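Researcher: I'd like a candidate sequence for this fold, 256 residues long. If you have to choose between options at a position, lean toward the conservative one.
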Protein backbone atom coordinates (compact mmCIF):
# COMPACT_ATOMS: atom_id res chain seq x y z
CA UNK A 1 0.00 0.00 0.00
CA UNK A 2 1.18 3.52 -0.70
CA UNK A 3 1.96 6.01 2.03
CA UNK A 4 1.10 9.58 1.12
CA UNK A 5 2.98 12.44 2.76
CA UNK A 6 0.68 15.42 3.04
CA UNK A 7 0.89 18.96 4.35
CA UNK A 8 3.22 21.91 3.95
CA UNK A 9 6.17 20.00 5.38
CA UNK A 10 5.86 17.38 2.67
CA UNK A 11 5.79 20.02 -0.05
CA UNK A 12 8.77 21.76 1.52
CA UNK A 13 10.71 18.52 1.51
CA UNK A 14 9.78 17.79 -2.10
CA UNK A 15 10.82 21.30 -3.13
CA UNK A 16 14.18 20.94 -1.44
CA UNK A 17 13.56 23.40 1.40
CA UNK A 18 16.05 22.74 4.16
CA UNK A 19 15.06 22.68 7.81
CA UNK A 20 11.50 21.49 7.21
CA UNK A 21 9.94 19.91 10.28
CA UNK A 22 8.23 16.68 9.29
CA UNK A 23 5.44 14.89 11.12
CA UNK A 24 5.32 11.09 11.10
CA UNK A 25 3.81 9.82 7.82
CA UNK A 26 0.17 8.74 7.72
CA UNK A 27 -0.80 5.53 5.94
CA UNK A 28 -3.97 5.38 3.85
CA UNK A 29 -5.17 1.87 3.05
CA UNK A 30 -7.54 0.23 0.61
CA UNK A 31 -5.79 1.10 -2.65
CA UNK A 32 -2.44 1.14 -4.43
CA UNK A 33 -1.09 3.35 -7.20
CA UNK A 34 -2.63 6.62 -6.05
CA UNK A 35 -2.46 8.85 -9.12
CA UNK A 36 -4.35 12.06 -8.28
CA UNK A 37 -5.56 13.78 -5.12
CA UNK A 38 -7.51 16.95 -4.31
CA UNK A 39 -8.44 18.47 -0.97
CA UNK A 40 -12.14 18.69 -0.10
CA UNK A 41 -11.82 20.26 3.34
CA UNK A 42 -9.30 20.71 6.12
CA UNK A 43 -9.54 16.99 6.93
CA UNK A 44 -10.88 15.30 3.79
CA UNK A 45 -9.32 14.64 0.41
CA UNK A 46 -10.30 12.56 -2.61
CA UNK A 47 -7.92 10.22 -4.41
CA UNK A 48 -8.00 8.46 -7.77
CA UNK A 49 -6.25 5.18 -8.41
CA UNK A 50 -5.01 4.47 -11.92
CA UNK A 51 -5.77 0.74 -11.52
CA UNK A 52 -9.55 1.13 -11.11
CA UNK A 53 -12.27 3.75 -11.65
CA UNK A 54 -13.18 4.43 -8.03
CA UNK A 55 -12.72 7.79 -6.29
CA UNK A 56 -11.94 7.35 -2.60
CA UNK A 57 -12.23 9.94 0.16
CA UNK A 58 -9.91 9.78 3.17
CA UNK A 59 -9.56 11.57 6.49
CA UNK A 60 -6.22 13.34 6.32
CA UNK A 61 -5.37 13.02 9.99
CA UNK A 62 -6.82 9.58 10.74
CA UNK A 63 -5.65 7.72 7.64
CA UNK A 64 -6.73 4.09 7.42
CA UNK A 65 -9.45 2.86 5.06
CA UNK A 66 -11.52 5.21 2.85
CA UNK A 67 -14.34 7.06 4.56
CA UNK A 68 -16.33 7.18 1.29
CA UNK A 69 -15.99 5.58 -2.15
CA UNK A 70 -17.59 6.48 -5.47
CA UNK A 71 -17.64 4.06 -8.41
CA UNK A 72 -17.30 6.07 -11.63
CA UNK A 73 -17.66 3.22 -14.14
CA UNK A 74 -21.22 4.00 -15.14
CA UNK A 75 -20.70 7.76 -15.47
CA UNK A 76 -17.50 7.29 -17.48
CA UNK A 77 -19.27 4.87 -19.83
CA UNK A 78 -16.47 2.36 -19.52
CA UNK A 79 -16.55 -0.56 -21.94
CA UNK A 80 -16.16 -4.11 -20.67
CA UNK A 81 -12.96 -4.76 -22.61
CA UNK A 82 -9.90 -3.38 -20.76
CA UNK A 83 -12.11 -1.44 -18.31
CA UNK A 84 -9.33 0.61 -16.69
CA UNK A 85 -9.79 4.35 -17.37
CA UNK A 86 -6.27 5.10 -16.06
CA UNK A 87 -7.17 8.30 -14.18
CA UNK A 88 -3.90 10.20 -13.80
CA UNK A 89 -4.48 13.75 -12.58
CA UNK A 90 -6.97 16.23 -11.14
CA UNK A 91 -7.31 19.96 -10.61
CA UNK A 92 -9.90 22.19 -8.92
CA UNK A 93 -11.49 25.30 -10.42
CA UNK A 94 -14.10 26.84 -8.13
CA UNK A 95 -16.18 24.01 -6.70
CA UNK A 96 -15.40 21.64 -9.59
CA UNK A 97 -12.70 19.03 -9.75
CA UNK A 98 -11.56 18.16 -13.25
CA UNK A 99 -10.01 14.75 -13.89
CA UNK A 100 -7.97 13.51 -16.82
CA UNK A 101 -6.91 10.03 -17.88
CA UNK A 102 -3.64 9.08 -19.57
CA UNK A 103 -5.08 9.13 -23.11
CA UNK A 104 -2.40 6.58 -23.98
CA UNK A 105 -2.49 3.01 -25.21
CA UNK A 106 -2.18 0.11 -22.79
CA UNK A 107 1.19 -1.27 -21.73
CA UNK A 108 1.27 -3.61 -24.72
CA UNK A 109 0.65 -0.80 -27.18
CA UNK A 110 -2.92 -1.81 -27.96
CA UNK A 111 -5.66 0.76 -28.49
CA UNK A 112 -7.43 1.56 -25.19
CA UNK A 113 -10.39 3.91 -25.80
CA UNK A 114 -11.49 3.63 -22.15
CA UNK A 115 -8.40 5.69 -21.31
CA UNK A 116 -9.63 8.68 -23.29
CA UNK A 117 -11.66 10.57 -20.70
CA UNK A 118 -11.84 14.14 -19.37
CA UNK A 119 -14.56 14.68 -16.78
CA UNK A 120 -15.67 16.79 -13.83
CA UNK A 121 -17.23 16.24 -10.43
CA UNK A 122 -18.55 18.34 -7.60
CA UNK A 123 -18.24 17.16 -3.99
CA UNK A 124 -20.44 18.31 -1.12
CA UNK A 125 -19.23 18.02 2.47
CA UNK A 126 -21.96 18.28 5.12
CA UNK A 127 -21.32 17.37 8.76
CA UNK A 128 -18.26 15.39 7.61
CA UNK A 129 -20.39 13.40 5.16
CA UNK A 130 -19.35 13.52 1.52
CA UNK A 131 -21.57 13.23 -1.55
CA UNK A 132 -20.56 13.42 -5.21
CA UNK A 133 -22.33 14.84 -8.25
CA UNK A 134 -20.89 14.26 -11.74
CA UNK A 135 -21.07 17.36 -13.94
CA UNK A 136 -21.97 17.28 -17.61
CA UNK A 137 -20.68 14.21 -19.39
CA UNK A 138 -17.24 12.70 -19.95
CA UNK A 139 -15.36 14.14 -22.92
CA UNK A 140 -13.77 11.53 -25.17
CA UNK A 141 -12.40 13.54 -28.10
CA UNK A 142 -9.39 15.29 -26.57
CA UNK A 143 -6.95 13.32 -28.70
CA UNK A 144 -8.75 14.42 -31.85
CA UNK A 145 -8.54 18.02 -30.65
CA UNK A 146 -4.79 17.63 -30.10
CA UNK A 147 -4.35 16.22 -33.58
CA UNK A 148 -6.24 19.10 -35.23
CA UNK A 149 -4.46 21.89 -33.35
CA UNK A 150 -1.88 23.54 -35.67
CA UNK A 151 0.27 24.71 -32.74
CA UNK A 152 0.76 21.10 -31.66
CA UNK A 153 1.60 19.65 -35.06
CA UNK A 154 5.37 19.86 -34.47
CA UNK A 155 5.05 17.36 -31.61
CA UNK A 156 3.70 14.61 -33.91
CA UNK A 157 1.09 13.51 -31.38
CA UNK A 158 -0.71 11.30 -33.89
CA UNK A 159 2.36 9.12 -34.22
CA UNK A 160 3.00 9.33 -30.46
CA UNK A 161 -0.52 8.03 -29.75
CA UNK A 162 0.21 4.80 -31.61
CA UNK A 163 3.00 3.73 -29.25
CA UNK A 164 2.91 2.01 -25.86
CA UNK A 165 3.00 4.82 -23.25
CA UNK A 166 6.48 4.00 -21.93
CA UNK A 167 8.12 3.83 -25.33
CA UNK A 168 10.33 6.71 -26.39
CA UNK A 169 8.20 9.46 -27.94
CA UNK A 170 4.83 7.94 -27.01
CA UNK A 171 1.81 9.85 -25.69
CA UNK A 172 1.08 9.71 -21.97
CA UNK A 173 -0.64 12.41 -19.86
CA UNK A 174 0.05 12.49 -16.12
CA UNK A 175 -0.27 16.12 -14.98
CA UNK A 176 -3.08 18.63 -14.55
CA UNK A 177 -3.27 21.92 -12.67
CA UNK A 178 -5.35 25.09 -12.77
CA UNK A 179 -4.22 28.63 -13.53
CA UNK A 180 -5.38 31.96 -12.04
CA UNK A 181 -7.28 32.61 -15.30
CA UNK A 182 -9.47 29.55 -14.79
CA UNK A 183 -7.65 27.50 -17.41
CA UNK A 184 -5.96 24.12 -17.01
CA UNK A 185 -2.41 23.07 -17.84
CA UNK A 186 -2.14 19.52 -19.19
CA UNK A 187 1.25 17.97 -18.41
CA UNK A 188 2.75 15.20 -20.53
CA UNK A 189 5.00 12.50 -19.13
CA UNK A 190 5.66 11.56 -22.75
CA UNK A 191 6.63 12.77 -25.34
CA UNK A 192 9.55 14.93 -24.21
CA UNK A 193 10.30 16.99 -27.35
CA UNK A 194 13.90 18.19 -27.60
CA UNK A 195 14.38 16.96 -24.03
CA UNK A 196 11.77 19.41 -22.69
CA UNK A 197 8.58 18.67 -20.73
CA UNK A 198 5.43 19.53 -22.67
CA UNK A 199 2.50 21.44 -21.19
CA UNK A 200 -0.62 22.36 -23.15
CA UNK A 201 -3.00 25.06 -21.81
CA UNK A 202 -6.66 24.05 -22.00
CA UNK A 203 -8.67 27.27 -22.15
CA UNK A 204 -12.27 26.00 -21.93
CA UNK A 205 -12.56 23.03 -19.54
CA UNK A 206 -16.18 23.85 -18.64
CA UNK A 207 -17.20 23.69 -22.30
CA UNK A 208 -15.61 20.28 -22.84
CA UNK A 209 -17.93 18.54 -20.41
CA UNK A 210 -20.82 20.08 -22.35
CA UNK A 211 -19.57 18.41 -25.52
CA UNK A 212 -17.73 21.33 -27.16
CA UNK A 213 -14.27 20.95 -28.68
CA UNK A 214 -11.15 21.94 -26.79
CA UNK A 215 -9.48 25.32 -27.21
CA UNK A 216 -5.76 25.44 -26.53
CA UNK A 217 -3.23 28.11 -25.72
CA UNK A 218 0.37 28.16 -26.89
CA UNK A 219 2.21 25.00 -25.78
CA UNK A 220 4.91 25.39 -23.15
CA UNK A 221 8.24 23.57 -22.98
CA UNK A 222 10.05 23.33 -19.64
CA UNK A 223 13.61 22.23 -19.05
CA UNK A 224 13.23 19.56 -16.36
CA UNK A 225 16.54 17.87 -16.96
CA UNK A 226 15.23 15.67 -19.76
CA UNK A 227 12.28 14.43 -17.70
CA UNK A 228 8.55 14.60 -18.35
CA UNK A 229 5.79 15.58 -15.93
CA UNK A 230 4.59 12.98 -13.43
CA UNK A 231 2.48 15.31 -11.28
CA UNK A 232 1.94 19.01 -10.70
CA UNK A 233 -0.09 21.39 -8.60
CA UNK A 234 -0.07 25.01 -7.66
CA UNK A 235 -1.64 28.10 -6.20
CA UNK A 236 -1.80 31.40 -8.06
CA UNK A 237 1.46 31.64 -10.02
CA UNK A 238 3.45 29.17 -7.91
CA UNK A 239 3.68 25.59 -9.13
CA UNK A 240 5.27 22.42 -7.80
CA UNK A 241 6.15 19.88 -10.50
CA UNK A 242 7.24 16.30 -9.92
CA UNK A 243 9.28 15.21 -12.94
CA UNK A 244 10.33 11.73 -13.97
CA UNK A 245 11.45 9.65 -16.92
CA UNK A 246 9.01 8.50 -19.57
CA UNK A 247 9.80 4.82 -18.84
CA UNK A 248 10.24 4.74 -15.02
CA UNK A 249 14.05 4.72 -15.15
CA UNK A 250 16.00 7.04 -12.86
CA UNK A 251 14.79 9.05 -9.90
CA UNK A 252 12.01 11.62 -9.59
CA UNK A 253 12.85 15.29 -9.21
CA UNK A 254 10.88 18.20 -7.79
CA UNK A 255 10.79 21.66 -9.35
CA UNK A 256 9.10 24.93 -8.39
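Model: Candidate sequence:
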Amino acid sequence: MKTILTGVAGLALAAGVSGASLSPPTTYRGMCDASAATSLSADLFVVANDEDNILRVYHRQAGGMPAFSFDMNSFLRIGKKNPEADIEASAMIGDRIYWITSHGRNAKGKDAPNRERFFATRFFVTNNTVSLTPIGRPYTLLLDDFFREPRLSRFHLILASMLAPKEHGALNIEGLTSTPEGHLLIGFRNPIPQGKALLVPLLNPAELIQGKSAKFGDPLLLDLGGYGIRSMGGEQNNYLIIAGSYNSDGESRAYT
